[in-house]
Design goal:
The chain has nine helices and three strands, in the order αβααββαααααα. By secondary structure, it is mostly helical. The protein folds into two domains: 66 residues, Arc Repressor Mutant, subunit A (Orthogonal Bundle), CATH 1.10.10; 155 residues, GntR ligand-binding domain-like (Four Helix Bundle (Hemerythrin (Met), subunit A), Up-down Bundle).
């Protein structure tokens, strides 16, 4: 009889969770959406047992809830969730950014800056399509993720990752990075990167705060605060 290779249940749960995260990133799961266990199983490409074990974790993290007679509901976006998620984001990222300014190398900063400038050049030379928006979102979130992970604290990284999923759900509800918002977002990032390059912790904290508050206001439908800086400073 052939040997059967069994995948540990903990590994299946971890893969199911990673797949759930990816579905949010790819906008295949929408805020407030109702979904059955079997539909979730098919969407994640995981066995039903792994999905059933995943559900309590998602409920504990506030990403999903069980509604009697209706099934599973992805977190609904409301004003309380928006305000709480952005407040937590600011608390975590401001500390991470200040420390990042003292630890990131000049070479890495140059690479980060160039990635942003490539997005800007593409946006100026061609139509801003879905492919460019996806690349811009990857560059945008990549910087935030990098700063958090540079702290080397798994507890903070875990809290941040959960909250970043909430923020992504919020941005799906309020329209994620759009053609109109792409260049202003890159402009804010480059303004922030300029402070990192100067190793100025006060400016780093101030500019990151401006950037996150700008994103917060955008999802609330409020005007973007004026930025005392222009892309022309660099490009």
């Amino acid at each position: 009889m052939a040997n059967v290779v069994r995948v540990p249940s903990t590994s299946l749960r971890a893969r199911a969770y990673e797949s759930f995260q990816q579905q949010i990133v790819q906008a295949n799961i929408r805020p407030g959406q109702f979904i059955s266990q079997r539909e979730l199983m098919q969407l994640l490409g995981m066995p039903l047992g792994a999905v059933r074990e995943l559900i309590p974790r998602l409920e504990a993290e506030g990403l999903l809830r069980t509604v009697p007679q209706r099934g599973l509901q992805i977190a609904h976006v409301d004003l309380k969730l928006i305000n709480n998620a952005f407040q937590l984001r600011l608390l975590l990222e401001r500390e991470a950014a200040v420390r990042f300014a003292t630890t990131v190398s000049d070479a890495d900063l140059a690479t980060i800056e160039e990635a942003h400038l490539r997005i800007v050049r593409r946006a100026r030379s061609a139509t801003i399509d879905d492919h460019l928006l996806t690349d811009a979102t990857t560059v945008d979130w990549g910087l935030h993720d990098l700063m958090i992970d540079a702290l080397g604290n798994e507890l903070i990284s875990d809290v941040y990752r959960i909250n970043s999923l909430r923020v992504r759900l919020i941005k799906l509800e309020a329209s994620a990075l759009s053609p109109e918002a792409l260049l202003p977002a890159m402009e804010e990032h480059l303004w922030f990167i300029d402070a990192l390059k100067r190793r100025d912790p006060e400016a780093v904290a101030q500019r990151l705060t401006h950037h996150i508050e700008s994103a917060h206001r955008r999802v609330l439908g409020l005007p973007r605060p004026a930025l005392p800086w222009s892309l022309e400073n660099l490009t």
